[in-house]
Structure formats: structure tokens, C-alpha cells
Amino acid sequence: MAAVEVDHIVSIADVIRLAVAPVFLLSGIAALLNVLTNRLARIVDRGRHLEMEFPGAAPGRMQTLRESLGRLARRARLVSWGISLCTGSAILVSVVVVVLFIDSLTGVNFSALIAVLFIMAMAALTLGLVCFLREISLATRYLRIGEPEPEHSPAGQVVDTGPARRSGG
Q1: Would you say 132 and 79 are in contact if contact means Cβ atoms under 8 Å apart?
Q2: 52-77 pLDDT tens trace
Q3: Distance between CA atoms of 97 and 93, rounded to whole angstroms?
């Protein structure tokens, strides 16, 4: 009986060794989810800030605000999809670990199921990363660094475009 218990312990130890790689993958996905949720929070905050400008905005500014909010909404949808796909990937990786242990404990061969679940997890992670890349692309496409043009400045704020400002002084 002792030999059977030792074999069972060795079998469980092997499964734990196999499960270590997916657990590290879960850590990476968790870090990516942290980045995505932070980006979503920033997009939401920026959208709320722009929405607060509507009541006092000049007529010329209204169209710019609408366009900016539309771009933010698109970016938020992409990040949301990325979060959903990465979360789905993490769930599938977790199921892979569970099925690895069930396979070991019951002796039933679930290798095909494990392979399919892992492929699905990687596909979801890949699509989540594509959403992230697309959101980054949109964010940088509309990035403007420098002084705002007078018609794009917030209501009531005067932008100095005098000679001292243009000369860098």
C-alpha cells in the first residue's frame, strides 16, 4: 500500500510541475488586466471631463467635444473587449489546471480537452492583445502635443498667441 501512495504522490507532484507554467501565464494575464483596467479608468475620466465642458462650451467647441467623446467611446469599447477576452483567457487557463488535476486523480485521459482549452485560452489572449494594440493605435493617432488652438481651448480660457509665446519666451 505504501508503494501506491508514493506513486500517487509522485503523480500529483508531476501535475503540480505541469501546472506551474499555466500559473505563471495567469500572472502575466493579471498584469495585462491591470494595464487594461487602468486605461479604461483613464478613458472614462477623460470622457467625464469632456462631458462637463458641454454646458459652457462655445458652438465651435461642441463639434470637437462630440468627436473627442466618440473617439473615447470607441477606445473604451476596445479596452472593454480586451478585458473580457483576457479574463476569458484566464478562466480557461484556470480550467486547464483543474482538468490537469482531475486527469491525474481519476486516471481518465483528458489530454485532448486540455489541449483544446489551452488553444482557446491562447486565442482569447491573442484577441485581447489585438484589442489592446488597436486601442493604443487609436490613442496615439489623435494625440496632439503642444498648445491648443484658440477654438479648441476650454470655454472661458484665453490662449496667449502673442509674439512672446511664439518665440519660446
Answers
A1: yes
A2: 988 888 888 888 899 999 999 999 99
A3: 7
Dihedral angle of Cα 114, 115, 119, 122, to the nearest 10 degrees: 60
Q: Which three cell numbers, joined as nine digits, stand for 94?
A: 484556470
Closest CA to 76 of 38, 50, 49: 38
Query: What residue segments make up the domains of the chain, in order of their start?
Result: 24-143
Q: 53-59 — which CB contacts under 8 Å span 24+ positions?
A: 53/154, 53/155, 56/155, 56/156, 57/154, 57/155, 58/151, 58/155
Q: Which of 169, 120, 166, 129 is nearest to 146 (CA)?
A: 166
Q: What is the pTM of this model?
A: 0.77
